[in-house]
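Hello support,

Our group uses your service weekly, and this is the first time we've seen a run hang past the timeout. The protein is Cyclin N-terminal domain-containing protein. I'm not sure whether the cause is the sequence or the server load. Input pasted verbatim:
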Amino acid sequence: MEVEEEDALAAAAASAWPGSSRRRHLLQFLLHASKRLDLRPIVKYSALEFFASRFLPALPRKMGYCGARSRRAVRSWLLEPLRDSNLELFALVAVWVASKIHDLRPLSVKSLKALGDRIISDQHFTCRDFADAELLFMEVVEHNIGSSSIAFIYLEELVIHFREISKLGDLLDLDVCMEILDILYETEDTSLLFNSPCSLAASTLVAGYVISVPKQTWEFPILPWVRFATSYDEEEIMKIVLTILLHVLKVDEIKERDKEDFDVRCLLRTCDV
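Update from on-call engineer: The timeout came from a worker crash unrelated to the input. Re-ran successfully.
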């Protein structure tokens, strides 16, 4: 009975890890590093996937943090104590791993160390620390560094397809779509949308269309086309789009776009004409 109670407490503690404010800080750190390094989008979003969706959730189980028990505990001074500076190191390691996968000329450890010296405030890490952290990172994620099913890849494919069939595709701003993905990653609740990357990509395209394409040119049946291109139910996509719009746009900003009595659903109804 005591074991069951311990497991329940451990599970509760692990589910609360790392906490919304700490998670937001770490992802903002990774996004800032990506901007400083001028990463290609595929590298940035692969790094976000590796770090936010695989590394951070696996840590409690892998190292017994928050009381979680594991048969294969990971031990290293880079993880004990688990300071923000140490986790920032692993965020840079996620970038390094993603760069090795997608770049013909991957980032060097020296360039990452130099950046770390500038933006990690509490501690300086050596090149050897980066190499050791990479081995730990791979152990924690169990070498799961596949990146073929991340939301950005699906989004990019949909945007290319959209531009092939409609001139309005040229008005769709991919940068706006990527900003949407960044904001969704930062918030723990909305980051759960990344568990269904294809539907998220489709919904992000629609949200990006609403935000970046001038309303007077909304003549393309975007929702039916997305349904055709992805086989997702139109109502399901609409719900996700509404969630995205209400999260990334403040109500006053949305009203400013419409200049009339506002119901966010009217945006999607207009798209669906």
